[in-house]
Amino acid sequence: MLLFNMFRVVTIFALFAVFDRGCWATSYRFPDNFLFGSATSAYQIEGAWNESGKGESTWDRHTHTHPEMIIDGSNGDIACDSYHKYEEDIELLKYLGVDFYRFSLSWTRIFPSGFPDDINYEGINHYNKILNLLVANNITAMVTLFHWDLPQGLMAVGGMLNPRFVTFYTEYARTAFEHFGDRVQYWLTFNEPFQTCVFAYGDLMLAPALGISGIADYLCGHNLLKAHAAVYHLYNTTYRPKFKGKIGISISADWFEPNTTDDEVAAERIRQFWYGMYIQPVFSSKGDYPDVVKEYIAYHSSLEGYKQSRLPQFTPDEINYIKGTYDFMGLNHYSTYMASEAPNISLETSYYNDYQVSLSSAGDSIANDSNGLLEIVPWGFRKLLVWLKDTYDDPDIFVTENGINDLDDVIDDKRRISYYGQYLEALLEAIYIDNVNVIAYTIWSLMDNYEWYLGYTSKYGIYYVNFSDPDRPRIPKSSAHFIRNVFGNRTVVSYDKVD
Ligand SMILES: *[C@@H]1O[C@H](CO)[C@@H](O)[C@H](O)[C@H]1NC(C)=O
Ligand SMILES: *[C@@H]1O[C@H](CO)[C@@H](O)[C@H](O)[C@H]1NC(C)=O
Ligand SMILES: *[C@@H]1O[C@H](CO)[C@@H](O)[C@H](O)[C@H]1NC(C)=O
Ligand SMILES: *[C@@H]1O[C@H](CO)[C@@H](O)[C@H](O)[C@H]1NC(C)=O
Ligand SMILES: *[C@@H]1O[C@H](CO)[C@@H](O)[C@H](O)[C@H]1NC(C)=O
Ligand SMILES: *[C@@H]1O[C@H](CO)[C@@H](O)[C@H](O)[C@H]1NC(C)=O
Ligand SMILES: *[C@@H]1O[C@H](CO)[C@@H](O)[C@H](O)[C@H]1NC(C)=O
Ligand SMILES: *[C@@H]1O[C@H](CO)[C@@H](O)[C@H](O)[C@H]1NC(C)=O
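Structure tokens predicted for beta-glucosidase:
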């Protein structure tokens, strides 16, 4: 089955190559205005969890009270110690030759309780120092407002499940715009709505690990979309005239390929459940949740005895309020999976039952899902980009994360170079052959860091960080040199393909 799929993709490429006069991807150059960058997030790198007036986040609480829910029992108390080493981090960015740096703000450094009462100016000063240093080095800032470290204080009122979350989040965003807006060109409201809601409120993988699947995940997503729209409108009307920046949201989307030709409908359905339900309300002229998502959740709800669908409904006013609230589409992409129809209907209330699809590995390489390594499937990236263009009326796509993991410390990381080389070629093909509007590309991640429930066991950095050393030294991996050459030449310089 994999051979069949691989064969089909190879055939399509060959056909394009003929139309394109035999041009190899590697001969393409990135457009002159295309932007390159690298990314991190606050909880994953900062450490200093209780310093300088910072309040407790859900991740502090979760890792301190439930270390058994983290593979290696670790936490982000120190992480990469970037709170103290941000100057060194900016040196790494300079070596890479990035145009921009994507990082996130820790909400509880700014409002320690989460409630918009007393601002902690030590937190404001910290991010001012980073932004000023970026400006001094001609590196554009892309700031994620929310990358999962919710103030623990908000959990007393249900966190993101409380409709008032929209107000608390908007006041936090307003404070960030006021203090930092003059030096931030790109804002992201949320990182990965699917993981934020399904893995943290529906499942047990991410803090606060509520595990109320099929209910809490939908409530969270509903409030998240409203909060995103509120903050977009706030920026659009009040801050854009002054600061001229752009604002969007980062959607995580892996590609789902039909396992057999009978699985086309299943593959499309899981795309709609995993990301379409967060993209369509914002990016489609139709607005609202996708019909297939509404139908399947309503159907399963009724089978389970609910008198109403577990998926909340938007009012027509809300649909219009959320629709069109983007300047670009942020996209986090990692790998590809095969999707198959799963006809058996369980009566257990669960997000995963609602969509009736099972997934399997798309890989034929040495790595597979069961050992925790991601598969290298560059054609899935290209197909996803074409699907996004076709499904959502050709938005500007800003790739806000792309990368692959190692399970050990690998400094000469040939597999990561192979991944980046192939994914960047697929990206160039999407731009030049498929005419997808991709405007920027972001490496995940600048350095090895705290990978949530995987602790320090899964490493995505192009810089190695020695977590046994109190100084947390950073050492460039082979991929850091490769990426520097790609960014500097604005093309995919030669590399060896390995699995
Ligand atoms: C995918 O298809 C193959 C046969 O083509 C089958 O063996 C496998 O079980 C299918 N995977 C799933 C998850 O159904
Ligand atoms: C901060 O947390 C550390 C443990 O990570 C602890 O040793 C230290 O006393 C705490 N500091 C404050 C000010 O609470
Ligand atoms: C700053 O960066 C921009 C684009 O990233 C570049 O065009 C410009 O030449 C740079 N300026 C300096 C002083 O390095
Ligand atoms: C953003 O503001 C502009 C200028 O006021 C307005 O034309 C546009 O409709 C606004 N965008 C949204 C999505 O409301
Ligand atoms: C289908 O789901 C039901 C309810 O969860 C379960 O009892 C049954 O064993 C499943 N059947 C198959 C063939 O998997
Ligand atoms: C997948 O990985 C596991 C663990 O390393 C290994 O035992 C298994 O043979 C691998 N499967 C395939 C198909 O490569
Ligand atoms: C990491 O740090 C420890 C403690 O300082 C040291 O023993 C070890 O050699 C370092 N590892 C690497 C790869 O630098
Ligand atoms: C371009 O890439 C080559 C290696 O392929 C490297 O030697 C050179 O320094 C790079 N140029 C720039 C401007 O980065």
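The chain has a mean pLDDT of 93.
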